[in-house]
Amino acid sequence: MLSHALLFLGIFLILECGSPIDVFTQEATEATDFPGGIVEDTENLTRTNFELLRTLSGRFKYTARSCKEILDNHSEREDGLYYLTTANGMKYQTFCDMNTAGGGWTLVASVHENSIYGRCTVGDRWSSQQGNNPNLPDGDGNWSNRNTFGLVESATSDDYKNPGYYDIAAKDVSVWHVPNNFPMEHWNLAAILRYHTENNFLRLYGGNLFHLFKQFPVRYNIGSCSNRGPAIPIVYDHANRESTRNLYGPKSRNEFDPGFITFRAINNEQAAMAICSGVKPRGCNSEHVSLNGFLSESAAIQMMHDVTILCFCMSSTA
């Protein structure tokens, strides 16, 4: 019934909420310096674009549960902010990607690393804001509950989750890796990695990430590394297998195969990692290539390097 885009970055709990990617290459830095820049001058900040505001206001009248429905029913082809309505009638605003692989992807979440030194602290909504507590093996549980948080325009500056995460009936996902704090209008150009799936895999797991993580809970001590969730092949929209491999430090590159998105990976310490974005772990050291896992005190600190992951999903009726 919907096409959606999900943006996520983060993962689970117990021992330490560590962040994944070891070492980002110069590509992450270069993404902040593309031609033309993104610095908004004082004139742009103070000038009101009434035409744009009228366009955005006109989108409020649409009745749709996904960006794909807006694309199909109203022929909108412009990326940007739109209003969606849940099955129960709640209206919310999100970002629609109207061009990738035919368009109609709905942003449902973003995972933002606010501090690589503050693990399981305030702001770590996708793992735990309650500390490293072995009595709370699910952390805050936001991968598999109906809690929502954040603002879509701030999705690269803070964690974000909207009602589409659990309301949209989806079949595929699309993921963007965007440097932190980039404004929404530059997400596409600034992304160092963009990819999507195209095999309708979400239909096998309840139709969205909410139901997928109900089947594969992000919970400490849930099982061994052989109990990980699905690893789905991806299609690259920007970058490729080799550039994905180079996003990780040399010592981590033997731990994964690029060209996949993997859900609920588990490491040797029984820590569950929600997402391994762009890769499939080869063994049980998934903390080196996955998002926001809880690592043992002896594990090396992983470096997130200022990247937010945006994840979109595509309607199952598309």
Question: Descriptors for this entry?
Answer:
alpha+beta; 8 helices; 3-stranded antiparallel β-sheet; 9-stranded antiparallel β-sheet; disordered N terminus; 25% strand
Architecture overview:
The chain is of the alpha+beta class. It has one domain. It is 15% helix and 25% strand. It contains 8 helices and 16 strands. Strands 1, 3, 4, 5, 6, 7, 8, 10 and 16 form a 9-stranded antiparallel sheet that branches. It has a 3-stranded antiparallel sheet with strand order 9-12-13, with no helix packed on it. Strands 2-15 form a two-stranded antiparallel sheet. A hairpin with a 5-residue loop joins strand 3 (80-85) and strand 4 (91-97). The longest helix has 9 residues, at 50-58. The protein starts with a strand and ends with a strand. Residues 1-36 and 293-304 have low confidence and may be disordered.
In short:
Residues 1-20 form the signal peptide. With 318 residues, this protein is α+β, with helices and mostly antiparallel strands.
Q: Output mean pLDDT.
A: 80
- Shape label: globular
Number of helices: 8
The main β sheet shows up as:
9 strands, antiparallel
Total tally of structural domains: 1
**What does the radius of gyration come to?**
19 Å
Instruction: Report strand %.
Output: 15-25%
Number of strands: 16
Order of helices and strands: EEHHHHEEEEHEHEHEEHEEEEEE
Separation of the first and last Cα atoms: 7 Å
Which segments are poorly predicted (pLDDT under 50) over 5 or more consecutive residues? 1-36, 293-304
Strand-pairing-aware structural class: alpha+beta
In helices, the fraction of residues equals 10-25%
Domain Fibrinogen C-terminal: 58-108
GO molecular function: metal ion binding; oligosaccharide binding
Keywords: Calcium, Disulfide bond, Lectin, Metal-binding, Signal
Protein name: Intelectin 3
